[in-house]
C-alpha cells in the first residue's frame, strides 16, 4: 500500500493568521513544527494501518515549508514548485492507493480559517459544473481520474464539512473550530497528533484503487475581485468572459482542468498591482 499525502498549511494545528503561513515570517517559523507534527501523525497512522510507503507532497505556497529533518524517517518528501499536478503531484505515477489531504482549508468565498482557493484574495469564488469548489474538491476530481480515493482530510471543522461533499467515506479530523477567517478554537498539538494518527490508521483500510473516473467534461468558472484580472485570465487559450469579473473554460478531463487553472492563476498573479490589487 502506498499513500500520497498532499500537505497544505492553512489547515494545520494552531494556524489562524496570514503570518502563520507566509514564508519568511517569524510566525511561519513558529508554525512549521506544528505543520510537520500533523504530517508526521498522518504518516505514523498510515504505517500503523499497514502502509508500506508514504510520499509527502508539499502543497503550500513555495512548497518548502515542512521540516525534512523532523519528518518520520519511513516517509519521503516531494518538495519544491513547478510540478505538473501541483498539490497532488505523484498520483499520476500509477502506484498510489490512497490520498490524504492534510492541513487543508475551505474555498474562496466560504466560511473557514484562511479560506481561499489558490490565490489568497484575488479569487473570490470557483465553481466546477455549477458547484462551488475548494482546493479539496478540485484535487479530488484530479485523483479520481487515476482511480485513487481520498481517504483522510484534516483542517478546521468547516473543511471537514466540505470534505463530506467530495469524499464522503474519508476520515476527517478537525484540528480547530472556525470562529472567523482569522480566528479559531484550537486543539493542542498533542491532541491533534493523536486524533490524526488514529484517523489515518483507520483510513488506511480505505486505500484501495478503483476504476478511473470519467466524469468530464468539466466547466470551471472563476470570479475575481477586480475586472482587470478577469481580462488578464482570458489570455489563456480557451478561457472566456463569463459575466462581471468572471471567466470560464471547459475541459474533457480534470487533468487538463487543473493545469489550465494553474495557468490562469499564474497570469492573474502577475496582473495584481500592489495596494489596489
Task: Provide a short characterization of the protein structure.
The protein has about 280 residues and is of the alpha/beta class. Helices cover about 30% and strands about 25% of the residues.
Describe this structure in words.
- This protein has 277 residues and is α/β, with parallel strands linked by helices.
- 30% of the residues lie in helices and 23% in strands.
- α1 (26-48) packs parallel to α4 (189-203) and α2 runs parallel beside α3 (157-166).
- It is globular, with a radius of gyration of 18 Å.
- The mean pLDDT is 98.
Strand proportion, as a percent range, falls in 15-25%
Number of DSSP strand runs: 12
Helix/strand order, N-terminal first: EHEEEEEHEHEEHEHEEH
Give the mean pLDDT: 98
Number of discrete helical segments: 6
In quaternary terms, these chains amount to single chain
**N/C terminus separation:** 45 Å
Sheet of most strands: 7 strands, mixed
Uncertain residue ranges: none
Shape verdict: globular
For the biggest β-sheet, the strand order reads 3-2-1-4-7-8-9
What percent of residues adopt helix (DSSP H or I)? 25-40%
Structural class: alpha/beta
Write the layout of secondary structure elements.
Elements: E1 2-7, H1 26-48, E2 53-58, E3 76-78, E4 98-102, E5 123-128, E6 131-132, H2 135-144, E7 150-156, H3 157-166, E8 171-180, E9 183-186, H4 189-203, E10 218-224, H5 227-233, E11 240-241, E12 246-251, H6 254-271
Parallel strand pairs: 1-2, 1-4, 2-3, 4-7, 7-8
Antiparallel strand pairs: 5-6, 5-10, 8-9, 10-12, 11-12
Amino acid at each position: 500500500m502506498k499513500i500520497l499525502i498532499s500537505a497544505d498549511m492553512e489547515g494545520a494545528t494552531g494556524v489562524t493568521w496570514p503570518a502563520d503561513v507566509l514564508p519568511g515570517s517569524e510566525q511561519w517559523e513558529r508554525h512549521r513544527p506544528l505543520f510537520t507534527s500533523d504530517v508526521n501523525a498522518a504518516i505514523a497512522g498510515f504505517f500503523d494501518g499497514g502502509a508500506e510507503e508514504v510520499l509527502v507532497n508539499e502543497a503550500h505556497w513555495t512548497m518548502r515549508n515542512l521540516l525534512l529533518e523532523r519528518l518520520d524517517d519511513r516517509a519521503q518528501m516531494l518538495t519544491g514548485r513547478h510540478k505538473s499536478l501541483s498539490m497532488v503531484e505523484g498520483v499520476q505515477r500509477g502506484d498510489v492507493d490512497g490520498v490524504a489531504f492534510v492541513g487543508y482549508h475551505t474555498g474562496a468565498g466560504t466560511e473557514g480559517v484562511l479560506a481561499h482557493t489558490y490565490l489568497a484574495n484575488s479569487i473570490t469564488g470557483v465553481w466546477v459544473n455549477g458547484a462551488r469548489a475548494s482546493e479539496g474538491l478540485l484535487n479530488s476530481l484530479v485523483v479520481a481520474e487515476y482511480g485513487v480515493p481520498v481517504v483522510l482530510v484534516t483542517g478546521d471543522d468547516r473543511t471537514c464539512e466540505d470534505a463530506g461533499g467530495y469524499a464522503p467515506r474519508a476520515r476527517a479530523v478537525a484540528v480547530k473550530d472556525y470562529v472567523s477567517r482569522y480566528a479559531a478554537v484550537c486543539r493542542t498539538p498533542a491532541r491533534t497528533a493523536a486524533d490524526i494518527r488514529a484517523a489515518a490508521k483507520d483510513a488506511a483500510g480505505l486505500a484501495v484503487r478503483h476504476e478511473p473516473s470519467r466524469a468530464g467534461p468539466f466547466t470551471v468558472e472563476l470570479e475575481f475581485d477586480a475586472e482587470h484580472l478577469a481580462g488578464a485570465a482570458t489570455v489563456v487559450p480557451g478561457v472566456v468572459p463569463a459575466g462581471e469579473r468572471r471567466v470560464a473554460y471547459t475541459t474533457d478531463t480534470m487533468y487538463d482542468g487543473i493545469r489550465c487553472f494553474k495557468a490562469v492563476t499564474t497570469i492573474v498573479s502577475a496582473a495584481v498591482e500592489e495596494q489596489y490589487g
